[in-house]
Amino acid sequence: MDNHSGVGVIDKASAILDALEHGPATLAELVETTHLARPTVHRIAVALEYHHLVGRDPSGAFILGRRFSQLAATVGEDRLVSAAQPVLTVLRDRTGESSQLYRRHGAVRICMAAADRPVGLRDSIPVGTTMTMQAGSAAQILIAWAEPDVMHAALAGARFTAADLAKVRKHGYAESAGERESGVSSVSAPVWGTAGSVIAAVSISGPIERLTPHPAAAHAHAVVEAAQQLSEVLRRSER
């Protein structure tokens, strides 16, 4: 595939962003991956950082910037997001817990849609929030059916194991308690795309005191049904 548009600085910036899609990278790692000169990589990465297209993690390594999650949050016309909102609202009302839709973007996941519990103690995840792929039931769903290289990379620092993911594939849902955040339980299920791959995860989350350490016992059925409904909406839209 030809990655040259004819506009050199855009092509170089794109190469840097492509490299960061796979996770944090130091300046030296970006130079090695992009095959660009070190001063060039530094100059463009700093410029991208100024516009929030690139950020830094606590160690100082470059990562994708918050602007991407902000842009993702505005994609209201996206078919999946449009179809998800009513499904998430029904799921919230059915379970009494906040519900979310997550999609994987490189080494992170992004909340694409949400319906918060209106009152009381709740787990509120704003649309556009970027979250880890190494903890939480939604991360388990998005990794369980992923390509082997993606799964291997996520498992390297994950709070779940390959055996846990095997159980997720067997049961068709995932649960977590205090995995992503202390005191929070969640249940998630896969949304299947028309190409036969998992394209998103539907979740509910809330305080562990209410959802218990094993929230799937009470709520897996409702979450799975919501995910299946959304999968069917997508299938019908392709006919």
UniProtKB/TrEMBL annotation:
Q: Name one Pfam family in it.
A: IclR_C
UniProt domain HTH iclR-type: residue ranges: 7-66
Q: List keywords of the entry alphabetically.
A: DNA-binding, Transcription, Transcription regulation
One of the protein's GO biological processes: negative regulation of DNA-templated transcription
Which GO terms fall under molecular function for this chain's record? Answer: DNA binding; DNA-binding transcription factor activity
Which residues does the UniProt record annotate as the domain IclR-ED?
A: 67-236
PANTHER family in the record, alphabetically?
Answer: HELIX-TURN-HELIX TRANSCRIPTIONAL REGULATOR, ICLR FAMILY (PTHR30136), TRANSCRIPTIONAL REGULATORY PROTEIN (PTHR30136:SF39)
Protein known as: DNA-binding IclR family transcriptional regulator
The organism's lineage? Bacteria, Bacillati, Actinomycetota, Actinomycetes, Micrococcales
